[in-house]
Design brief:
alpha/beta, eight-stranded parallel beta sheet, about 35% helix, acetoin catabolism
Length: about 400
């Protein structure tokens, strides 16, 4: 299985300054993956990114919005269309940096659809909150949507998007809400307690695409076992029924137990288990055609580099041994970049990834109620029984 990694250091230019979405998380990920030999495996190709053109961006973004982003990128003060806020501050070269990420993710999806690679990854991508006409949630251009639209334009009839970021994948859902060719599935912390305030179970697709949006809203404190229980109670059944030709996953790492911006309680081990489950589903339902991106993640040293190095390992071949020690050269680099952040010693947190399958009629927990709400809302659209654990 060949894997395309679309990457070069210019992608670190998406830098909003003193801001939670720090490009150091991507730099440290790629450094750790290299030092552990993940990018040197047979069948792995690393390709330089090329920026998306205005025409490519306009497949999902309003031309007027693109023009405003360009104006803000020259240093002009702009407080318009979601830009110039604390979440989305403008910076010199913002359009160019954002278009480069969009181009990288678009290229990853194009390569898999055309059969140039079995799998592909754009680790700097996953900017899933950007809307057609405004920036949102640290995101300027919606690179997953640009990539999915490219695959549709090339002839795909069914594309599934699975978002495991702690925040609802609202931008991708909005862009394809009335398109029956795209199934969006998002597992996230409840919108009652976390930005962006959307992603309730009853958001199930527009009039032209009923059942095309699936949302699992999880309570704060959900840990590895409960998150995996919810994932397996919803995602496999819906994906099997939809039968996508390509699986796109947004793999934000901000579900981490010590992430400063959210309240779920996963370990790196739970995140690794999620990547393995997504790999298996891609093989089962999409002929192995799998495109992955990064996303959020604000435990910049402790979590994101380890989580995404596990992701890269799963995409490129054999998963890494969780007990693997962290190389000293990487620890030195991380200390130099962020001396105030805790350093991990190994690729594991020692988390347990054992989980108990959902069974209707069990004494319901908050997570079980979330599972049931989602199954009740969307399973009938797919001819599935919300109360049958086999579906």
């Amino acid at each position: 299985m060949s894997t395309l990694v679309v990457w070069d250091e210019r992608l670190l230019g998406y830098d909003m300054g003193d801001h939670p979405l720090d490009p150091v998380r991507v730099e440290l990920t790629m450094a750790l993956a290299r030092q552990l030999g993940v990018l040197d495996r047979p069948g792995v190709a690393v390709e330089r990114a090329e920026a998306a053109t205005d025409e490519m961006l306009a497949t999902v973004h309003d031309p007027d919005y693109i023009a405003v982003v360009k104006a803000a990128s020259t240093g002009r003060r702009v407080a318009l269309m979601g830009l110039g806020t604390t979440d989305n501050p403008t910076f010199a070269g913002m359009h160019e940096a954002s278009a480069l990420i969009a181009g990288a993710t678009r290229r990853a999806a194009e390569a898999v659809w055309r059969g140039e690679a079995g799998r592909a990854v754009s680790i700097s991508g996953g900017l899933h909150h950007a809307m057609p006409g405004r920036a949102s949630g640290f995101c300027v251009y919606n690179d997953p949507a640009v990539a999915i639209k490219r695959v549709l334009d090339l002839g795909a009839e069914r594309v599934a998007y699975v978002d495991i970021d702690v925040h609802h994948g609202d931008g991708v859902q909005e862009i394809f809400y009335d398109d029956p060719r795209v199934l969006t599935i998002s597992l996230h912390e409840s919108p009652r307690t976390l930005f962006p305030g959307t992603g309730f179970p009853d958001e199930t697709g527009g009039p032209g695409a009923p059942g095309s949006a699936v949302n699992v809203a999880l309570p704060p404190g959900t840990d590895d076992a409960l998150w995996l229980r919810a994932f397996h109670a919803v995602v496999p059944g819906v994906l099997r029924a939809f039968s996508p030709q390509l699986l796109f996953t947004q793999c934000g790492a901000d579900t981490y137990r010590h992430d400063p911006l959210a309240n779920l309680w996963l370990t790196v081990d739970g995140q690794r288990a999620a990547y393995l489950a997504l790999r298996d589903l891609a093989e089962e339902v999409a002929g192995g055609r799998w495109v992955a991106s990064g996303g959020g993640g604000y435990a910049l040293v402790e979590c994101v580099p380890r989580a995404w190095t596990h992701l890269l390992a799963v995409l490129t071949g054999e998963p890494l041994d969780p007990a693997l020690p962290i190389p000293q050269d990487w620890l030195d680099l991380a200390t130099a970049r962020r001396p105030d952040h805790p350093l991990p010693e190994t690729m594991t947190d020692g988390g347990s990834t054992d989980w108990t399958p959902w069974i209707p009629g069990d004494t319901p927990s908050q997570v079980d109620r979330a599972i049931m709400a989602t199954r009740n809302a969307v399973f009938p659209f797919f001819g599935l029984d919300p109360h049958d654990p086999r579906d």
